[in-house]
């Protein structure tokens, strides 16, 4: 008689029935199926084995079978092992004011043009004032002049603000690259750079300090000189703007007219400062004002050799001729006037010997 067993529905172990049937598998605590002979045919079993994937759900009743597919194949030889996924490239750190930084050159050029137009508007207004000393001015011309001055000044101020943001973004990115190339990080936070460059009066000192720090402990002399020139121009332009603002506080007509000239000079200084800022930025990037790669010129000192390589050529004198050479020259002269062919040949050979001797002496 065959042994009666109870299969486990979880681990598949078969346990012999001894006495009363059990309900739980002693190994995995799974459910034990009803007892059946170990060699019972499938039609006499009260269970059947179904192989399923762990994540496969039970099919819905009435659903059709899987569609027939082709023979499974591999595009390449299967390889077993750990899958070493290459690490994803670290995303580039997005710096503040990045949008303004990429357009910093264009913003500075636009600001220079805007301040130039504002200076032209002030010059036209001053010309109208000079013309008004002897003649009356049409109110329409005066109104157009006022609108032109106000509009040009407003556009110049907006352009200057955007140019300042672009220059600040460039400074942040340039310091990030410079300190990264030296194996470190910028010790100053972004908010400190922003306050040092945008707050009035404070921005007369700190921008130059930030630029010199960017150059490193051993700055290039040309770049350091350019930064110092920019710093002096920046402070001078600020002082000129302060003088022009104070000039407008006067009440006399002449002072107001002079204030127009002061405003014109201030606009010209601002335009020049924008161009100077662009020059310093591109110089620190290794380019010239037009944006081309700057080529370093190296001068080499060339000196004459201590001793001349070729001795100077000195003509042989009559005293330096070999013995018999002077007579040969005289014989050639006499043979040229009257003599036989043999005498002329002899004299010619003597002259050739004299020339060879002169060449040896020259060498």
Explain this structure.
This protein has 3 domains: 51 residues, no CATH class; 187 residues, no CATH class; 38 residues, no CATH class. The protein has a 3-stranded antiparallel β-sheet, with no helix packed on it. It is mostly helical and 363 residues long. Helix 2 runs antiparallel to helix 7 and helix 5 packs antiparallel against helix 6. It has 9 helices and 3 strands. The model has no long low-confidence stretch (mean pLDDT 78). Pfam families: DUF4328. It comes from Nocardia panacis. Keywords: Membrane, Transmembrane, Transmembrane helix. This is DUF4328 domain-containing protein.
Largest pleated sheet: 3 strands, antiparallel
Task: Indicate the percent of residues in helices.
Answer: 40-55%
Task: Tell me the Rg in angstroms.
Answer: 50 Å
Number of strands: 3
Structural class: mainly alpha
Q: How are the strands of the biggest sheet laid out side by side?
A: 2-1-3
Low-pLDDT stretches are none
Query: Average pLDDT value?
Result: 78
Count of folded domains: 3
Q: How far from one another are the termini?
A: 131 Å
**Count of alpha and pi helical runs:** 9
What gross morphology would you assign? elongated
Tell me what portion of residues adopts beta-strand conformation: under 5%
What is the string of SSEs from the N terminus onward?
A: EEEHHHHHHHHH
């Amino acid at each position: 008689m065959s042994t009666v067993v109870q299969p486990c529905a979880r681990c598949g172990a078969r346990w012999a029935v001894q006495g009363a049937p059990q309900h739980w598998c002693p190994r995995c605590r799974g459910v034990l199926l009803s007892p059946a002979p170990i060699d019972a045919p499938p039609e006499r079993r009260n269970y059947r084995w179904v192989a399923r994937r762990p994540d496969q759900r039970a099919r819905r009743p009435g659903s059709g079978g899987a569609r027939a597919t082709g023979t499974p194949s591999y595009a390449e030889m299967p390889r077993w092992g750990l899958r070493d996924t290459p690490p994803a490239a670290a995303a580039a750190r997005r710096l503040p004011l990045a949008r303004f930084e990429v357009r910093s050159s264009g913003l500075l050029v636009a600001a220079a043009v805007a301040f130039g137009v504002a200076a032209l508007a002030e010059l036209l207004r001053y010309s109208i004032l000079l013309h008004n000393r002897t003649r009356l001015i049409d109110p329409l011309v005066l109104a157009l002049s006022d609108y032109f001055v106000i509009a040009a000044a407003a556009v110049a101020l907006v352009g200057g603000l955007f140019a300042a943001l672009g220059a600040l973004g460039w400074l942040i990115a340039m310091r990030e690259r410079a300190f990264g190339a030296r194996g470190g990080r910028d010790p100053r936070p972004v908010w400190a750079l922003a306050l040092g460059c945008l707050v009035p009066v404070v921005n007369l000192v700190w921008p130059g300090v930030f630029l010199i720090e960017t150059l490193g402990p051993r700055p290039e002399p040309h770049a350091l000189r350019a930064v110092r020139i920019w710093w002096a121009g920046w402070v001078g332009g600020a002082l000129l703007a302060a003088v022009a603002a104070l000039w407008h506080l006067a009440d006399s007509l002449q002072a107001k007219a002079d204030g127009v000239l002061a405003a014109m000079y201030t606009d010209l200084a601002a335009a020049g400062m924008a161009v100077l800022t662009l020059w310093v930025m591109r110089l620190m990037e290794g380019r010239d004002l037009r944006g081309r790669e700057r080529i370093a010129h190296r001068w080499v000192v060339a000196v004459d050799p201590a001793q001349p390589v070729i001795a100077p050529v000195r003509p042989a004198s009559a005293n330096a001729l070999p013995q018999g050479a002077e007579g040969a020259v005289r014989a050639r002269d006499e043979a040229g006037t009257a003599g036989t062919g043999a005498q002329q040949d002899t004299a010619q050979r003597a002259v050739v010997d004299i020339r060879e001797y002169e060449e040896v002496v020259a060498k």
